[in-house]
Amino acid sequence: MKFDPDDWRDFDWRDFDFGQIRVLWVIPVLLLLIALYTSVYTVQAESQGVVLRFGKYVRNAEPGLRFKLPFNIESVSMVPVKRQLKQEFGFGTENATNPNQFSSEQTLERGMVTGDLNAATVEWIIQYRVQEPELYLFKVRDPDNTLRDLSESVMRTVVGDRTVDEVITVGRQEIETDALAQLQELVNKFELGLSIDQVQLKNVNPPQPVQRSFNEVNQAQQEREQLINVANGEYNKVVPRASGEADQKIQASEGYALKRVNEAEGDAARFNAVFAEYMKAPEVTKQRIYIETMQQIIPKLGKKIILDDAASQILPLLQLSTTATK
């Protein structure tokens, strides 16, 4: 129906087709809704968004509600930068959230040769984070599998530099430290955009056919170390005590020697002093020495009766001892 403005008075509004106007309004509204829907997105708290414009990296988006160009002009890839990821080697945990957490070739991964040409089964894990999302997404085609290959290569190198005893017993911590440093160096060199947090050894054992014999040898070595520790304990308990007693006796002997020397020097000085007085008055000195000597000796003799040469008899009533009156 063609509408003529000059004939508006004769126009019947009941014959006008309003459906055409509705269709014309629906299309812009749908386009607006689609634009709004495709331009709004949310970045989770543990993730970071990588915004691409026509497939080219543009920027990173922090957590929260964000906007981008609609109609897939800009697309967003979410990368869990704050989540710690894990890879397992030589074994696998069921129901793992990370699809690259373990490999189907676990037997091949854990079989290694040590530096002294012995076989060992080594199981370990690595924990890592995505540090640079743009490198993680675009620098290497498959960064997770590349990390697995690098980790296996580093662990074989580190284990191959050590003996089987070091790998299984005392060298575990050193292996973890060296493997962590070498793996991080290779990750930086390949620009994977990852940060290695930890390399941890799990089960490290000799091959199954010789495991029983190795356990017996290991038990014998532990018993040997135990006996050595017990002997060292006894040694540390006895030797210091004997040394202390020897020092005590030496000090006592030195003190006794010093005492005797001082006494001898005092006696010599006293004798010289008496001799000097004797030279001045010999008779007086003899008499004084005699009296002093008797003063020291007589009290030690007990009760004695001294009679004069002229006495003819002893008094009959004289009590010679205290027991006579009892």
TrEMBL record:
Biological processes, Gene Ontology terms: proteolysis
Main location: membrane
Matches recorded under CDD domains: SPFH_HflK (cd03404)
Family the entry assigns: Belongs to the band 7/mec-2 family. HflK subfamily.
Cross-referenced NCBIfam families: hflK
Protein's gene: hflK
Domain Band: 38-218
Protein name, as recorded: Protein HflK
GO molecular function, one term: peptidase activity
